């Protein structure tokens, strides 16, 4: 799943489309890519981009002390790794948004945008793939083994994905992350269509696994399947939007851009709510301490010292 959202990409440099001024651009493209003038719409556009990442980062900051205490007490390598990755992704998203807000529209800015997009997208793909890889291993191996296998496979997949994007951008000069009036360009939209269809197919397989003989391979927690369903829908919408744009339908800008924006805005809190919230809840820590104290007072652990 990519975060190369049409909403977040910077405006093209001056002169890129001399025959196609902004006022003649498709309506959906104008809505998602305001002009470079610092008017009310441009300011509102930047605030909408930055608000989700800022709010979630503030949320993490308010719970930082209790979360770190919980992780240190539990000594869970898996949860500590995911929590760290979540922070890294949030910081990258903030930097990415600030870069968009400070864009100068020059070629250097375009290069910086592409590099930041590649780095941020690498982190998002790493998280997405690692969740599926880790949970698909079941409970047959230890935490360290699961963590190492997960990071190895997901890191390799994310690196190949980033390399492929870099080849398209810097080798073939196909602007994967740049918003422009390019409906009908199959070089770009065919790539995103195939990419999103791949992730859509993976999530579809996961959704039907509970109805097959392999249903015991994945956890039975409803939250996990809610997580998969949301990503299945978002990837499917992006694939549909890419297909529309490949055929030259301007409405595809709305479908692709809005679904990609919601992915960018929702994925970090979705990951936190699905896999980390219950584990890091302060009440759970207090409850565990209370249970331990009661059991110790009752002499439950006396046999351990004999």
UniProtKB/TrEMBL annotation:
Identify its membrane topology class. Multi-pass membrane protein
Keyword vocabulary terms for this entry: Membrane, Transmembrane, Transmembrane helix
Location(s) in or outside the cell? Membrane
Q: What is its main location?
A: membrane
Q: Which Pfam families match?
A: Tmemb_40
Cross-referenced InterPro entries: TPRA1/CAND2/CAND8 (IPR018781)
Membrane-traversing stretches: 43-61, 82-99, 119-140, 152-178, 190-212, 224-249, 261-280
Stored PANTHER family: TRANSMEMBRANE PROTEIN ADIPOCYTE-ASSOCIATED 1
Family the UniProt entry places it in: Belongs to the UPF0359 family.
The name under which this protein is listed is Transmembrane protein adipocyte-associated 1
Q: Which organism is it from?
A: Sphagnum troendelagicum
């Amino acid at each position: 799943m990519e975060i190369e959202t049409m909403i977040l990409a910077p405006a093209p440099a001056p002169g890129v489309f001399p025959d196609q001024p902004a006022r003649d651009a498709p309506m959906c493209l104008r809505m998602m890519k305001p002009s470079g003038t610092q008017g009310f719409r441009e300011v509102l556009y930047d605030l909408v981009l930055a608000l989700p990442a800022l709010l979630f980062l503030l949320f993490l900051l308010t719970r930082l002390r209790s979360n770190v205490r919980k992780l240190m007490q539990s000594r869970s390598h898996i949860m500590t790794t995911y929590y760290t990755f979540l922070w890294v992704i949030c910081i990258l998203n903030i930097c990415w948004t600030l870069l968009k807000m400070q864009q100068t529209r020059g070629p250097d800015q375009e290069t910086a945008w592409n590099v930041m997009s590649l780095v941020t997208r690498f982190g998002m793909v790493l998280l997405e793939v690692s969740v599926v890889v880790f949970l698909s291993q079941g409970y047959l191996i230890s935490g360290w083994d699961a963590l190492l296998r997960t990071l190895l496979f997901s890191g390799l997949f994310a690196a190949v994905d980033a390399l492929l994007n870099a080849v398209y951008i810097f080798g073939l000069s196909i602007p994967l992350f740049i918003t422009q009036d390019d409906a009908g360009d199959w070089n770009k939209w065919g790539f995103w269509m195939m990419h999103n269809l791949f992730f859509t197919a993976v999530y579809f397989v996961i959704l039907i696994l509970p109805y097959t003989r392999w249903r015991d391979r994945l956890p039975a927690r409803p939250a996990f399947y809610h997580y998969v369903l949301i990503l299945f829908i978002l990837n499917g919408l992006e694939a549909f939007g890419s297909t529309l744009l490949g055929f030259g339908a301007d409405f595809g800008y709305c479908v692709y851009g809005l679904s990609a924006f919601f992915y960018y805005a929702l994925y970090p809190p979705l990951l936190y709510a699905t896999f980390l919230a219950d584990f890091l809840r302060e009440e759970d820590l207090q409850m565990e301490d209370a249970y331990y104290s009661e059991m110790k007072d009752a002499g439950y652990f006396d046999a351990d010292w004999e």
